[in-house]
């Protein structure tokens, strides 16, 4: 059988949470507020907008820098609606903004639902694909012309001058062998946290990308 036809809709910023036609008890209740808008300045224009994908009996809604929600499109009295993640932080790989992480969604067994939204070049803003590669973890693809330029997702140009200088100094220290590769990674993580791109790790939590798990000497002087 042919796959169900998908429809993409851009909607105002209701964020899937306050549909006036739903009774108060049915409205979604987020666990926390989203993180502040961060990252490349040209992407901030997506804040306050929502993009929907209708697939089979579900409507998925992605609101950049806010949340991801899912709504079952049936007339069942207990049709499912839920939050699949609230804007948390960027995933940064090779000094590039790779994806947006939406965390702390509705409870799912012993964990919270979370979504990873990858940004790809497209002719228009649209939520192109949604899947659930593992239980309670969702993968979304969002197409936008805002990321078509080869430098549009580079981290360094998005940083304020003071943080660019810190990065330059870390590069020089690494070249001069004053810090290790692991130490350099830790410097970058601290820098990205200060910029608001990453959230500080909570106690006992490890980084998703580029984590430095081994206790290493951060400078040659500390070896002596």
From TrEMBL:
GO terms for molecular function: transferase activity. Residues 48-150 form the MRH domain. Its main location: Golgi. One of its GO terms (cellular component) is Golgi apparatus. The keyword Signal applies. Residues 155-224 form the DMAP1-binding domain. SUPFAM superfamilies: Mannose 6-phosphate receptor domain (SSF50911). InterPro entries: DMAP1-bd, Gtb1-like, Man6P_isomerase_rcpt-bd_dom_sf, MRH_dom, OS9-like_dom. Residues 20-41 are annotated as: Disordered. PROSITE patterns: DMAP1_BIND, MRH. It is found in: Golgi apparatus; Secreted. Keywords: Disulfide bond, Glycoprotein, Golgi apparatus, Secreted, Signal, Transferase. Homodimer; disulfide-linked. Hexamer of two alpha (GNPTAB), two beta (GNPTAB) and two gamma (GNPTG) subunits; disulfide-linked. The alpha and/or the beta subunits of the enzyme constitute the catalytic subunits. Non-catalytic subunit of the N-acetylglucosamine-1-phosphotransferase complex, an enzyme that catalyzes the formation of mannose 6-phosphate (M6P) markers on high mannose type oligosaccharides in the Golgi apparatus. Binds and presents the high mannose glycans of the acceptor to the catalytic alpha and beta subunits (GNPTAB). Enhances the rate of N-acetylglucosamine-1-phosphate transfer to the oligosaccharides of acid hydrolase acceptors. PANTHER family: N-ACETYLGLUCOSAMINE-1-PHOSPHOTRANSFERASE SUBUNIT GAMMA, N-LINKED OLIGOSACCHARIDE PROCESSING. This is N-acetylglucosamine-1-phosphotransferase subunit gamma. It comes from Mustela putorius furo.
